[in-house]
Amino acid sequence: MQILKSVVGRKVFMAITGQCMVLFAVVHMLGNSSIFIGPDGINAYAKHLHDLGPLVWIFRAGLFAFVAIHICYGIQLTLENNAANPTAYAVKKQLKATFASTTMIWTGLLIALFVIFHILHFTARVTPGVVQGVDALGRYDVFTMVVSAFKNGGIAFVYVVAMCALFFHLSHGIQSFFQTMGWNTDRTQCTISTIGKAVAFILLAGYAVIPISILASALIK
Amino acid sequence: MSDHNTMNLTLHVWRQKGPNAPGKLETYEAKNVSPDMSFLEMIDEVNEDLIKKGVEPIAFDHDCREGICGMCSQVINGVPHGGQDRTTVCQLHMRTFKDGDNIFIEPWRAKAFPIVKDLVVDRSALDTIIQAGGYTSCHTGGVADGNTILIPKPEADYAMDAAECIGCGACVAGCPNGSAMLFTSAKVSQLAVLPQGKVEAATRVNAMTEALQQCGFGNCSNHYECQAACPKGINVKFIAKLNREYLKAVFE
């Protein structure tokens, strides 16, 4: 399979897997915002998801495969790029590259570490101090679990920092997808770049508002 | 030449005796530099001084000195070809500098461009990429009639924009990944839109990207630093076009 080794082919895999994860992130954010409806919102949402049974596991396996491809190629390409540019200039000015574009590997690895923590925290619920219980309707009480977790400033901080990393990663990654798929022209480039950054910001705001608002209300009380 | 017009500059130049010798930045004074000189003329003068002092002159690449051959190759104060937009080193004039300026002059830096001496690098890797597919195969023989093959104006313009690449390698020098994707994409795009080049478009994009990889260039990660560094303003839309051509070739 030539495409798995090609300079362009591997980029295409990076782009497609990355963009699928962006779609997941959007859906996940919309699902999370059901917490603002109250216990009835997010507990019912979580129950719906878990009632899907085997579908959940098929989805998780697919997502895991995408994450694995994205990370493996990301590390491989970064190592190759560093090897292709072994000597640093004494003086080097960045003309067009951004903080986001030059730190993709680090923001990416930060997000990967966060995802591991997040799964242990809210999915496997094995980290210390997770409040577990059921609500009045016998559903798993996600609302109380999340609210009690984010009253802890340290945990809220970790979540917000990770979402900032996600913002930087996507502010380069989303527009990069269109370039890699060959759907960019000099006329669309500026618009696509703006839309990419806007989507990245909406995801940052949509995710970070949950820990921030919970922590803020806990501090005010 | 009146004194108030001239300037004195401090140059920090990369000196390296040979490909495997260790190199370092050496400091030289450039005195009484006229603002009307080109950057290369300024180095010529500095070299005259060095020769008089018995110091080995600074080796650098140059040829046409009118911005079209793609030989000059210096990273000046951290920017390939210096800070002036769409300008090669030879066309960069000293009036863009101020009296007392410190100027850092370094060679193109990339694994695929080994240093030959001082500021001279070996850019034959770019030739290897062109040899892999940057041409059209055609029958030789009598000259074909002009306009035998009609090419719509937009396509002709697009191909000409891509053909502006002078193959200097500034895109590689500027790229944080040491990638020659802009260079490769300019040739792939130029030929892919022309009727003579369309025939071999699929084999060309595969062969040229493979050559790029084998020459030790890095991968493109869409920093777009190349477009900003390019003295001819080659647009990164050509990289998108290369990606499109590659995907088309996969499904063909």
Structural account:
Chain A is an all-alpha fold and 221 residues long. Chain A has one domain: 3 helical TM bundles of succinate and fumarate reductases (Up-down Bundle). Helix content of chain A is 73%, strand content 0%. Chain A has 8 helices and no strands. Chain A has helices at 7-32, 39-50, 54-84, 99-102, 104-123, 142-150, 153-180, 189-220. In chain A, helix 1 packs across helix 7. The mean pLDDT of chain A is 96. Chain B is of the alpha+beta class and 252 residues long. Chain B folds into 2 domains: 3-106, Ubiquitin-like (UB roll); 123-137 and 148-251, Orthogonal Bundle (Fumarate Reductase Iron-sulfur Protein, Chain B, domain 2), CATH 1.10.1060.10. In chain B, the strands form 2 sheets. A 5-stranded mixed beta sheet of chain B has the order 2-1-5-3-4. Chain B has a two-stranded antiparallel ribbon with strand order 6-7. The longest helix of chain B has 15 residues, at 237-251. Chain B is elongated and about 60 Å long. The mean pLDDT of chain B is 96. Chains A and B meet through helix 1, helix 3 and helix 7 of A and helix 7, helix 8 and helix 9 of B.
Order of helices and strands of chain A: HHHHHHHH
Q: Biggest β-sheet of chain A, characterized?
A: none
CATH A-level architecture of the largest domain in chain B:
Orthogonal Bundle
Name of the level-1 CATH class of the largest domain in chain B: Mainly Alpha
Going by helix content, strand content and strand pairing, the class of chain A is mainly alpha
Described by the principal axes of the CA atoms, the overall outline of chain A is: globular
The helix content of chain B, as a percent range, equals 25-40%
- Percent of sequence in beta strands of chain B: 5-15%
Unreliable spans of chain A: none
Count of helical stretches of chain A: 8
Question: Which structural class is indicated by helix and strand composition of chain B?
Answer: alpha+beta
Indicate the overall shape of chain B. Answer: elongated
Radius of gyration of chain B: 21 Å
Task: Please identify the top-level CATH class of chain A.
Answer: Mainly Alpha
